[in-house]
Amino acid sequence: MLPQSIRHAFIGYEYILDRLEYPLYITQLIPEEEAGILQSFLDKYEFDVEKVLFDEFRFHYLCYRKMVLHNQGYPSL
Question: Are 6 and 12 a contacting pair, CB within 8 Å?
């Protein structure tokens, strides 16, 4: 089961969590201390409800995470 802080970041994006909870849990893609990065990512990206795939989500999340960590802050779009 995902940590509560990660589950909390998905409020409003339950359709993504429903499809990706198990792969996120197995891969441990998002550490609990990065819940803020995840929340910012979910606020800025849009995924098709029917077609969201883990590989696509992972690719975009890792790109976003790298940008945030490299620039040491969240982008203001």
Answer: no
